[in-house]
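WARN no homologs supplied; continuing
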Amino acid sequence: MSFSAPRKQTLFILSLVILWYTSNIGVLLLNKYLLSNYGFRFPIFLTMCHMSACAILSYFSIPFLKIVPLQPIKSKSQFFKIATLSAVFCGSVVGGNISLRYLPVSFNQAVGATTPFFTALFAYLITLKREAWVTYAALVPVVAGVVIASGGEPGFHLYGFLMCISATAARAFKSVLQGILLSSEGEKLNSMNLMLYMSPIAVIVLLPAALVMEPNVLEVTLSLAKQHNFLWLLLLINSTMAYSANLLNFLVTKHTSALTLQVLGNAKGAVAVVISILLFRNPVTFIGIAGYTMTVMGVVAYGEAKRRFR
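OK structure emitted
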């Protein structure tokens, strides 16, 4: 049975979306499992593993396999801008991983859904870019939902919550900063080339941080590896998934649109919450679910308002 070209394209995009969901949700759940359930309590080292995989696989994907054209760094100024973005990105990923040690994935995702609030805040503070009042009004349920979810979260942990908020804010700050620093036509990089250059810098930043802040990481990791034969395999799969999530994010954006990606991203958060509750059996309350639902609805409304009133 032969498929028509439009049907082949639809199947291809559907396959990309399924793989994107699998890699994103997979790395999130595996992070939680390693950091909370497995006894591997080294979020900085885990982030370094992710960045190492991204550096190695990016090098094979772009210069060798030529998945996307290589965009060279053209100046010292551009390099320092990329290094700045890499440092902020490191902070966001480490903060997110630390929060997973203390918070359920469902609540982690609820807090992470407030990214548009921080993006709008930083865009206003840094670039003085103003949106229509309707757009800002849509952010009210985004924040209110997290406040409600926090009050109804049985597994609430203040330090974990603060790290999750910090990670979310850093992620938003990085996106705004990226738009400012790499805004000129000569300096713009697609997400895959940016990952190619950011990853090695991130490893250089994270290695000394892991050795200083997690001094017994090698000793404990080797000890855990003796007890659990699959530790190295889990770390390898987890790190490869981290790169796959970035690659598939790029491919889904390329073959659909930014709006489609936003809608799919909102749905992905909800899917991750349901799977995590079923997998980790963390208790949830009606208030917590109501708060998360309000946040997601606010994010959807914010995206629609931005599209209509830009």
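Residues 5-37 form the longest helix (33 residues).
OK
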